[in-house]
């Protein structure tokens, strides 16, 4: 026989279930929107050719990067669509990408308010109306649901009949429990795998940037050391290079320092330290929340089966706060996911047009054409001058049979003539082929060693040879300058015209961006799944513990009536 319940309680429970259904549906809609937007706007190198190229020119002539993807409502501009593209220095871009998380924020607020009102109303009703004056027994809904046939699968049917007959749980509750348990497992797996892969991708990306920047800085340090040493090179007490040439060296060093070439190394290392300090706490929070939510889910299930009503209600309050925090954390990672996807698309588009003025080129400025030309002219002039001055010394001193009184150039030179160096540039600084009797700069050190003679205390050769150890060392100083500048000339040009930065960005967009985008998406999707699972769990616990209490009271009443 059924015992009636207060209609107000049925209406209250029905409204709460409807509210939770709306919240979870909204979560799935927001999640699907985030996934679809990231998939539809995934950067691809084939989308920048022909009519599919989606790079627009702004009103001031700057290149608008990721224009289609960044079209979002701008709360700072009366919620008009933001159209200026990717620009992390633009407050309107930051506001628009932050606005993409509003659905999750609204869901968290609505959830917090609805369940809070429900808990307050339940407490007031229990205190004012009396929790024990209601009739007990099976509610009509639970009784009807408990009579539903079990699933057809044999093993599941045995398991369900066991729970139904031994623990007296309605079959629909067991079905919902299994569904909710699957949501927990999926959400936990996505969150754990996503955060692990995400932080691995972040570390891999920035370590690649640091390695690239360190490689640049190492080459530049070697270049600067070679250039500075050229100012002090002397042959037999005389400066090898004239004052005007030494002035060009000073001008070159000043130009390099003003060009901020060490900027990528400084920024990369600063960013690594900042990300380590910012992301490690977030990673810890994710792990703690995932562990706590799994613990709450397990304890809630255990307490509800045991009928520990007070502990279940305490866990409901804890879960109420945890779900709110998890949804807000989902909003944060949705924003981060959108920023990562926007940045990857902006880098991919900038790679195809690095010369144009854009927000990305302003953060990583490339040298203009005049600076590029001046830099290359200086390096070519220094290379050619170093080779010419060394060849002049070879012809006029080493290969010339000096008289003993012609100090300091007399060293008792004898033997085969020292071959001349191959100047890689002609008088117009264009590449030239080497003559048959010329030697390459790279081989000069080994070849010239064969022309060194043994000297006495006065520095006069006592064996056959045309170079003393001192003159050889001084000549090699000039040769090293010429070789270094000739070797690093293309490298300097690649830095000056942004080829180096473009290649780095291309590697990041093709190798690192897909992983960053997918794993950040897994994180907020896992958080959303956990939030939805805990939402349903809270409702199931309250309903189950109430029905268990009613059945226990009914059982006692029946036993008393028998006597």
From TrEMBL:
<keyword id="KW-1133">Transmembrane helix</keyword>
<dbReference type="InterPro" id="IPR040283">
    <property type="entry name" value="DDB_G0292058-like"/>
</dbReference>
<protein>
    <recommendedName>
        <fullName>Envelope glycoprotein B</fullName>
    </recommendedName>
</protein>
<feature type="transmembrane region" description="Helical">
    <location>
        <begin position="284"/>
        <end position="303"/>
    </location>
</feature>
<keyword id="KW-0812">Transmembrane</keyword>
<feature type="transmembrane region" description="Helical">
    <location>
        <begin position="104"/>
        <end position="131"/>
    </location>
</feature>
<keyword id="KW-0472">Membrane</keyword>
<feature type="transmembrane region" description="Helical">
    <location>
        <begin position="310"/>
        <end position="336"/>
    </location>
</feature>
<feature type="transmembrane region" description="Helical">
    <location>
        <begin position="162"/>
        <end position="179"/>
    </location>
</feature>
<dbReference type="GO" id="GO:0005886">
    <property type="term" value="C:plasma membrane"/>
</dbReference>
<dbReference type="GO" id="GO:0009506">
    <property type="term" value="C:plasmodesma"/>
</dbReference>
<feature type="transmembrane region" description="Helical">
    <location>
        <begin position="522"/>
        <end position="545"/>
    </location>
</feature>
């Amino acid at each position: 026989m059924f015992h009636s319940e207060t209609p107000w309680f049925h209406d209250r429970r029905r409204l709460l279930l409807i509210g939770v259904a709306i919240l979870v549906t909204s979560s799935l809609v927001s999640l699907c929107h985030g996934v679809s937007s990231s998939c539809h706007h995934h950067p691809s190198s084939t989308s920048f050719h022909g009519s599919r190229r989606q790079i627009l020119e702004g009103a001031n002539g700057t290149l608008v990067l990721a224009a289609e993807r960044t079209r979002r409502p701008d709360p700072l501009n009366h919620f008009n669509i933001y159209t200026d593209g990717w620009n992390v220095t633009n407050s309107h871009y930051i506001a628009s990408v932050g606005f993409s998380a509003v659905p999750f924020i609204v869901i968290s607020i609505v959830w917090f308010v609805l369940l809070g009102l429900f808990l307050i109303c339940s407490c007031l009703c229990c205190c004012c109306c009396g929790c024990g004056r209601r009739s007990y027994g099976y509610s009509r809904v639970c009784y009807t649901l408990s009579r539903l046939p079990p699933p057809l699968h044999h093993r599941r049917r045995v398991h369900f009949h066991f729970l139904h007959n031994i623990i007296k749980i309605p079959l629909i509750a067991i079905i919902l429990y299994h569904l909710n348990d699957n949501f927990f497992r999926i959400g936990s797996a996505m969150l754990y795998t996503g955060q692990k892969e995400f932080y691995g991708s972040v570390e891999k990306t920035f370590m690649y940037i640091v390695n690239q920047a360190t490689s640049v800085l190492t080459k530049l340090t070697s270049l600067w050391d070679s250039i500075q040493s050229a100012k002090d090179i002397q042959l037999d007490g005389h400066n090898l290079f004239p004052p005007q040439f030494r002035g060009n060296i000073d001008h070159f060093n000043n130009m390099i320092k003003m060009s901020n070439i060490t900027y990528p190394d400084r920024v990369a290392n600063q960013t690594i330290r900042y990300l380590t300090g910012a992301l490690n706490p977030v990673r810890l929070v994710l792990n703690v929340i995932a562990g706590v939510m799994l613990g709450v889910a397990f304890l809630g299930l255990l307490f509800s089966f045991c009928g520990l009503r007070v502990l279940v209600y305490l866990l409901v309050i804890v879960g109420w706060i945890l779900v709110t925090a998890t949804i807000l954390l989902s909003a944060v990672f949705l924003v981060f996911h959108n920023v990562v996807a926007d940045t990857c698309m902006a880098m991919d588009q900038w790679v195809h047009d690095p010369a144009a003025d854009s927000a990305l080129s302003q953060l990583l400025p490339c040298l203009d054409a005049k600076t590029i030309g001046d830099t290359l002219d200086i390096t070519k002039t220094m290379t050619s001058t170093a080779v010419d001055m060394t060849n002049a010394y070879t012809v006029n001193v080493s290969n010339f049979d000096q008289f003993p009184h012609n100090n300091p150039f007399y060293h008792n030179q004898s033997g085969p003539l020292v071959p001349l160096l191959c100047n890689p540039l002609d008088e117009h600084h264009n590449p030239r082929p080497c003559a048959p009797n010329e030697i390459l700069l790279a081989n000069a050190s080994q070849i010239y060693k064969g022309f060194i003679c043994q000297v006495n205390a006065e520095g006069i050769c006592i064996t056959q040879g045309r170079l003393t150890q001192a003159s050889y060392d001084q000549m090699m100083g000039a040769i090293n300058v010429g070789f270094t500048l000739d070797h690093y000339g293309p490298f300097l040009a690649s830095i000056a015209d942004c080829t180096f930065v473009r290649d780095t960005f291309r590697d990041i967009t093709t190798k690192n961006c897909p992983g960053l985008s997918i794993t950040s998406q897994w994180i907020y999707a896992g958080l959303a799944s956990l939030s939805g699972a805990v939402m349903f769990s809270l409702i199931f616990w309250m309903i189950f513990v109430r029905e268990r209490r009613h059945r226990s009271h009914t059982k006692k009443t029946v036993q008393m009536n028998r006597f």
